[in-house]
Amino acid sequence: MPTTAETIVQTMIDAGVKRIFTLPGLGVSRTLDKFFDRQDEIEVLLCRSELIASVMAQTTGRLTGKPGVFMGQGPFASSLGAFGIMEAHMSGSPMVILTDDSDYDGYGQYGIYQGMTGEYGGSDVKSALKGITKYCCYATDPTEAIYGLQMAFKHASLPRTGPAAMIMKSGIVRQEIPDTRPLLYPIGGYLEYTPQKVDPDAIQKLAVLINKAKQPVFVVGNGVLAANANHTVALLADAAGIAVATSYNAKGAVDETSDFAVGMMGNWGCKTANKMVEAADLVVMIGASMGPDYTKFRDPKMIRPGDQTLVQIDVDPRNAGWVYPVDLAITADAADALNVLSAIGLEDQNRKQRLQGIATIQKENGYGVFPEMTARQGYVHPVDIVKAFQTFLGPDDYLTLDAGANRIFTTALLRMAAPGHLLVSGGLGGMGWGAPAAAATKLVHPGSRVTNFSGDGGFGISLQTLSACAQNDIDATFVISNNQGLGMVRDNLGDKVTGANYDNLDFAKIAEGFGCRGMTVTHPDEMLDALEESHKDGGATVINVVVDPEANYIPVMDP
Questions:
Q1: This model's pTM is above 0.85
Q2: pLDDT tens, 475-504?
Q3: Are residues 48 and 137 in the same domain?
Q4: Do residues 74 and 116 make contact, with C-beta atoms less than 8 angstroms apart?
Q5: What is the pLDDT at residue 179?
Q6: 3-state secondary structure of 381
C-alpha cells in the first residue's frame, strides 16, 4: 500500500503542480525522498527562508492562475511563511500550504520544543493559519491527509481564489494508507467547476448606462488580471472613449500610454486618475474591491453615491456594494461579463467628446510628465530611476515592486506600456516581497526580462533570494534604491527622525558573495546603461543605486 508521502506527491502531480517551494523541516522533510523519485515530473526548489518560499509560491499562483505550493515545518511555515500566505489571502492568489503540527512522535502534550499541536505548553498551528487562509484542515491519519490536500487544491482554486492549508500530524507522513473507509478518490473530480452564467439583462442595463453617460470611467481591479480580461477592457475603453483607472494591484492592467488610460488611483497613485474618477458621472468598478487604499481613504469628493451612478462587477457577490452602495451589482467573472458587453456592443457617438475630456484632465494634472527633482552631487534621485524604467521597459519586460518610497515614486510616475507586466504586493503590502516575486516571475516566464525595484530596507529582508537565483540559474535584475533607511517612514517623520536610518550596505558586494553580479550607480546618466547591461549574459544582477537620503516622496503624492 502507498504511504502518505507517496500519495501526497501523486496528488500534486495529478493537480498539475510542476514546482514546489520549500525550506523543509520535520514532517515535510519526510516527503522529500518521494519527491526525489518523481523529480522528472515535479521540481522541489529549496529556498533559504520560509518567507522567500511563501512569496515565490504566492507569485506563481498569481501569474499562472493555478495554486502555487509552499511547504514548510509548522512553527516556521505559520510565522515566517505567513508573509506570503497573508499576501495570497488579501490579494486573492491561489496557493496551497502543506505543513505539519511539529509533533515529535507523540510528545505534543509534554511541551516539546517547536510543538504546534495546540496542547498546553505549545502553540497551535491550525489557529495560526486559520485566520489567514480560506480553508485550513488538520489531518491526524493518512486518509485525512490526502483528502485534506485534495480539498486544499479545490478551495484555493475556486472564486475568490486564495490560500488553503493542509496540516499533517508529523508522524503520519511515512504511514501506509489503509484500504478502509472512508475511500479515497482521484483529485480530478473534486476540482470540477462551472462558473455561473452572466445575467444578460444586467449587462444590457450596463450598456444603456454607458451609452447615456457623459464621462464614464472603468475602475479596473485585480479581478480583471485574474480573469485575463484586461485586453477586453482596453478594446471597450478605446471603442467608446471610456477612461480606465486602476487599483494598486491592477496598475498597468492596460497600456498606460493609451489615450484612455489615466493611471492608478489613490494617495500613492496618480493625481490624473483621482481627478478623472471625481469628474465621472458613471463609475463601473470591475473586479475591484474599492478598498480605502486606492480611493484616498474614501475621499467624499472622489466616489459620490447618489450623485454618480455606480456599477460593480465582481465574481464574489459579497464584494459588490462592500465599500460603497451601488446602483447596479453584477455577479460574474470579469472576463465573462465583459465578453457579453462586447457582444452587445457600445455606441461610439460620444467617443470623441469623452476622449477630449480625458485629455483635458491628463494635461491639467501632468499625466506622463516627470517632475523636476534632482539629487545632490554623487547621488541619484528616485525619479531618475523611474525615468530610466520608462525608457527601458519593453513589451516583454516584467517589473516587480517592493513596499516603501521606491514604490510610491513608481506608481505615481511610471506609465506601464506592457499590460499585466507589473506585479505588486497589493494585499499585505509588506517590505521584502519584490525580490522573491521577481525570481518566481522569471521561473513562470523564462523568456522575458524580469526586474525588481526595492529599497534597501525591503531588499535587506529578502536578499536570500539571491541564493535561490544562483542555485537555480534564475536570470533577474534587482535594482536597489539605497537611501540608507526606510524612506517612507523617514519622510513621514519630518525633522524628528529616529528608528528609520540604516548604516550604508554595499549590496553590489553582497551580491558577489552570493555568486551573483553586482553593479553600482552613482549618477543619473548611468542608470539606463546599467539596466541594459544587467540583462546581458544571463545570471542574477544587483544594481546598487546610491540614492540621496534627502529625496522625499511626499511631493509626488496627491494630497
A1: yes
A2: 999 999 999 999 999 999 998 999 999 999
A3: yes
A4: yes
A5: 84
A6: coil
